[in-house]
Amino acid sequence: MSNLHDRSHFENSYAGKPPWDMGKPQAASAESVDLVISPVLDAGCGTGENALFLAASGHQVTGIDFVDEAIRIARRKADERGLTVEFQVKDALELGDWDKRFATVIDSGLFHVFSDEDRIQYVAGLTHVTEPGARLLLLCFCDEEPGSHGPRRVSQREIHAAFHGAWAVENIRATLLDVRPDLEGISFSEGGPKAWFAIIRRNSL
User: Fold this and answer.
1) Burial level of 106, CB count in 10 A (0-12/13-18/19+)?
2) CATH classification of 7-202 is 3.40.50.280, yes or no?
3) What is the mean pLDDT of residues 65-79?
């Protein structure tokens, strides 16, 4: 497992309040709700805001994260809001051993933490848990974001390369990632880090 996908780093983040934990879904993900078909997998769900938003919109959602504390908070939020989401502690690099199948996968800030080697394993796992025609809605840091704060930057070419074969990239558009407004000592582009939002469809094998 790569250092980018380091469990202790994320566990330490959730011991405080992570920069990405804003108490609401990512705008780019929320705006794409019309593309979502149940059942839905939220891969790397964190404390569950995207999953909970989709559940409130009437979708059947499973959220996974490999950090116990994130899932504990997500389950508490679901209880408080009276929403039903299946939240599980599970590593998104271990989808290949799962018997669940999904029509839509939400990846809101997970792909960009993986090394090149982990990307291969992740995409293979996504292929395993989806049927042909399923969609992946991918939100990740963009290579046009300056500086070095945050995760690795991702180019459109890298997205196409990672999903070549079993998947087809239908569309990639530029957007911004939402982060907490009270961050100290971290500087991003005005309005939030530059990001890509990609719509990727699972091909027939």
Assistant:
1) buried
2) no
3) 94
Q: Is the peptide bond before 39 cis (omega within 30 degrees of 0)?
A: yes
Cα–Cα distance, 94 to 113 (Å, whole number): 15
Residue 30 CB burial class (10 angstroms; 0-12, 13-18, ≥19): middle
* Crossing angle (nearest 10°) for helices 68-81 and 49-56: 30
Q: For 32, what's the count of Cα atoms within 13 Å in the CB-facing half-sphere?
A: 28
Cα distances (Å, whole numbers) of residue 62 to 20, 44, 146, 175, 181 = 20, 11, 34, 25, 28
Token pair listed for 148? 């070095």
* Those residues with Cβ within 8 angstroms of residue 32's Cβ, 6 or more apart along the chain or in another chain: 137, 197, 199
pLDDT at 204 (0 to 100): 83
Residue pLDDT, tens place only, 180-197: 777 666 778 888 899 999
Taking CA 187 as the corner, what is the angle to CA 151 and CA 140, rounded to the nearest 5 degrees?
A: 30
Is 144 or 3 the better-scoring residue by pLDDT? 144
Q: Which range among 137-151, 153-167, 180-194 has the greatest average pLDDT?
A: 153-167
Burial of 127 (0-12, 13-18, 19+ CB in 10 A): buried
Joined together, the tokens standing for residue 118 give 């982990």
CA–CA dist 49, 128 (Å, integer): 25
pTM: 0.90
